[in-house]
Structures are given as C-alpha cells and as structure tokens.
Specification:
Two copies of one chain form a homodimer.
Chain A (H helix, E strand, L loop, with lengths): L1 E5 L3 E8 L7 E4 L3 E5 L1 H11 L4 E7 L1 H14 L3 E5 L5 E8 L5 E6 L6 H15 L4 E5 L8 H13 L4 E4 L3 H8 L4 E2 L3 H8 L4 H11 L3 E5 L5 E5 L5 E6 L11 H14 L15 H22 L11 H7 L1 E6 L3
Parallel strand pairs in A: 1-5, 1-9, 2-7, 5-6, 9-10, 10-11, 11-12
Antiparallel strand pairs in A: 2-4, 7-8, 12-13, 13-14, 14-15
Helix pairs in contact in A: 1-8, 3-4, 4-5, 6-7, 8-9, 9-10
Amino acid sequence: MILTVTPNPALDLTWHVDRLVPGATHRVAAGAARAGGKGINVARVLHGERHEVLALATVGGGTGDEFAGELGASGIRHRLLPVAGPTRRSVAIVDETNGEASVLNEHGAGLTPAESATLVATAIGLGRSARTVAICGSLPPGFEPDGLAALVAELGEAGVPVVVDTSGPGLIAAARAGAFALKPNREELAAATRRESPADGALALLELGARLVVVSLGAEGLMVVSRADAAAGIRARLPRVLRGNATGAGDAAVAAIAAALAEEPEPGRGRELDAATPAGAEARARLARRATAWSAAAVLMPLAGSLSPDRGALEAEVVVTTAEVPA
Amino acid sequence: MILTVTPNPALDLTWHVDRLVPGATHRVAAGAARAGGKGINVARVLHGERHEVLALATVGGGTGDEFAGELGASGIRHRLLPVAGPTRRSVAIVDETNGEASVLNEHGAGLTPAESATLVATAIGLGRSARTVAICGSLPPGFEPDGLAALVAELGEAGVPVVVDTSGPGLIAAARAGAFALKPNREELAAATRRESPADGALALLELGARLVVVSLGAEGLMVVSRADAAAGIRARLPRVLRGNATGAGDAAVAAIAAALAEEPEPGRGRELDAATPAGAEARARLARRATAWSAAAVLMPLAGSLSPDRGALEAEVVVTTAEVPA
C-alpha cells in the first residue's frame, strides 16, 4: 500500500469558459468540484494505475463535506481527519480559446496544535505498514516544518521511504529529516536552497540528508540527482512540447516516484533506486523516463490526477541522458 | 410580511484579488460563500431595513447545504424546498486594482415538473398572507413562463400585488398575467419587448397588463412609468457617478418597490402607487427617489444584498423629474 498525506487539501472547482474577459459576466455550464490538493492528485494517479493506495487528509466545514462526498464517490481508499477550519477552495477558470487556466488558491484555514499532532500521529500509524509514503503540497498555517520533519524521520527509522513534494522551509526540513526523495520544481528548489542552478540546488538537498532529488523543469522535462550517482545527474525530456493543463504534471511525477519505490523487489534495506551500481543507475534512469512520461500524460488531461492512455507511447519517446553535475 | 421568491437561487462565491491576471496563479484569502440569487438579495435588503420578510427558494446538493447553512446564519426567515438538482454556483472575482468584477453564472440544474408545481403552489400558499410578493431572477430550466404567469395571476386575484424582476419570455408572461410592477434593466427590456427606447418598452409592458414599470438604467438612474400617469414618466438619478459593485443595484431597486407596496396604508384595492391623482404621482416620485438611492447605496457595498448607511443622504441627493413618454 502507498500512503499519500495531504496536510493542506482543497476543494478544487473548475469552470470552462469560451473566453475569459476580465470585468465581464459569463454564462457557464456547471463547474466540476473535486477533492484536490497534491496528495489527493497523487493518490488519483496511483489508483488509476492500479496501485493500492490510501489517501490521508484533513477535512472541515461545508466545503469539507463536498470534498468527502466526491472522494467517497471516486473509489479511492481514504482516511479523513475532521478539523475545525473549513477545507479551502482552489479555483481554476479554463479559457477554451487559448487553453490558459486562471487559478485562485486560497490559503488554508490552519490547524490547531492538537490537529497537527493528530495528523502526524495518524500518518505515522498508517505509514508504518505502507511500502512508501508521499507527503505532498503546502503546509497549512499551524502545521510547522518540525511536524513534517518528525513524520519523515519516524517513518525513515521504521524503514519506510518517504517522498516529499513541498516548498519553502518544509522542503529543507524534509531533506534534513532524511526524506528518501524530494520533488521540487525549479522555482521551489531555487527559493528554498538559494542556488540558481537546479543541479546545485539538488546537491544542496542531498547534502542536507535526502537520497534522491527529482527536479521538475516544466516543458524541459526533469532532472534526477542521487547520492549514489555522486557527481552524475540524469536528464529526461520529451523531444516535443505538449499543450495542455500543467496543473497535475508535478503530482504525476511524484506518483511515478512512489510507484517505483513501492515496486522495489526488496522493501526495507538495500533499495535499487539508492544503489551505487549499474542496476541502481538503470533503476534511476527508468524512474526518470517514467516520471517524465507520466507528467506529460497528465498535461494531456483536463483535470489533475489522471493520465492520458498515451502514457506508454510517451514513455518510449522520452530521451534520457546522463550529465555531469558540477560539484 | 413581504415574500420573496427565487426560482433559480445560487451559492454566491466571491474572491478578492489584487489584480486578476488571466492565465496566472493567484494566492488569495478565503472567499465568501453566501446564499444568493436576486430574490435572496432582495430579502437581505428588506431584512436590513427591518421589514418582515420571508425568502422562498429551492435547494439541492452539497452546494444547497452550504446555501442553507449560510442563510440560516443570516437571520432571514426562509422556506427552502428540497429539489434533486444541486444549487448552482455564481462566481465573482473582484479585481482590487480597478474594482471590476469578473463573473461566472452557472445555468441552473433545472426543476422537474413536480418540483416546479410545488414551488408555484408553495409561493401561492405563502403569498396569500403577504402584503406583497417579489419574484426575482432567471427561471431555471423546467420552470416555464406559464408557471410564473399562474403564480402572478393567482396572487393578483387574491389582491396581493406582485413585483417581478426577470428577463425574456418570463418578463412578458408576468406583464400579461397582470404583475403590479416589473423591474427590467434597459437591456432586458429592449430584448423582451423589441423596443429600442426604455420608454417605448415600458409602455409595451403596461399595454400587456402591468400597472407600473421601473426601468433601471445603471449610472443614469431609473425610470418609472405607470398606467396612472398615462403619457408621463418619472426619471430619477443621482447627479454623480458612484464607483463600486453594481451586482446588487437592481435588487435594491426591487426591494424599494416591495417596501413601498408593503407600506401602502390600505393594502388590497386602491393603492396609492396606482392612483391617477396628485397623491399617486407623489407616491411614485417618492418610490423613484428611494429606489435610486437604494440602488446607489448597494453599489457602495462589497456584497449584494446590503445598503450603505449613506442611503438617507443619497436619497436627498437624487434628482427627480417628470418627462413626457412618447405614445
């Protein structure tokens, strides 16, 4: 089982308009309301790929009721912790003429210290029996980087590899706590590590304590840097640019990392993805290829959390190269 | 008691952004979710002005639960008819830099024939003991103009004056059924009557069967045309342009009409607002002044359904003139 943890979930509302004209009134078809947040999207992708998954999130207020109802109908196994603050909303208005999405992300309402502690304890309890745990998205007010670090460290000690996709101090705290894999995008990595180049930023996170850093680079694909490869990094990209909805691309990459960890032949010690051997390098190249293809397959779909059926063909198209990472 | 009927209510979601940039991602504070739809806004204004009011609307789905929760907390007396389709959403994104609101209005989910019949029967039942009934907003799919006409006619026969604020075939049906007052805006009036000038359009509605037509003209104020005045119309406007949120201005004008009808000394036959006497003309001029001031006071408020405390001062500023209406 793969556990996904979403500390700051959202009710995702999506509307499609012919053309978004600021200041104008638009008559539109009913929008879609879905349970969202990065960890929920990761769980959707994994569920769609027939991985056994359990999604853990908080939920509150009327928006939380809608969130729970939609997640219940999705067929994804989940555990929702009731909290006092209402589940935040995230709004996307998709302009059908140019394909652009205008997005409003509400800040979360925040967790009380007791709610944060319950979330960490529940994630540890459920995560102990998982093959891997993915902790995804922003941290709501009240959920401190220390809480994230404790969660990562406890699971690591229990031999469960953790993937973290967050930004800011949380990203640094997760690296320090020994997260197995981190998945920042270029901007998040630069902001958190204060390194201009993605390779430099990735190395900084490895030095802090992570084993593997996957940097998503948008249309330029992604970069995989691992401790096992020492000074070498893997670059993977699709040789053409896809038009579509980029919102779920990073989540698809996280799902690919979690899937690779869950599929390791020998869970626990001695993971192939972490091995300084030709087999290890091959496993990392395979991951780079799949994560790139899944990200691209997510771009082709209208809503985050699903992959285009073309993902297999896309995987064959991905170009993987090994590049020296400057020390 | 004033009854407001909202056949096509909405959950109104409002967000404020510093600057709305199409295609960009914006971090925003939590939006406001309010029970909305024109009849609900009219009820809010009347409730705020300490009129006894009862708001009748349909409600369905998760959005309907949020709608009911917010309306319950507002203190406005209400009666909600459960229906199968979910309550639609209406989205407003207010750009704080230029004050413009970008609006998305979802079409309603539609009513079944049985739900439409129940709504009409309930409105008649409650409306019989009302001093006036305001029926406001668009008609959802499945609620035919015939249903609106039956409601207007039955209440009229029971001696209860009805104010209708709708557009298209519903506006024509309401005039034919003998609605006491109609409150189209300039565009709605032109579209429904196919008359270019507001005065011509208003006369057409009077000829069909209405007693009084109030045409809202945006920053140009409004026009009151009545059967009692024969070929004379009243124009009212504020001598300066207000910046603000125009969404609730028309609803405030409807509230002013309903309040004027509810305050008539002798409910039933022989209303002052309908009298071809100097007192009648004065009552209509008073209404024009108040409806203009309340509309302006609504523009000054961030959310539809409330009036600025300046409404009294604004009323003193309104300029009222009598103009010949071309026959």
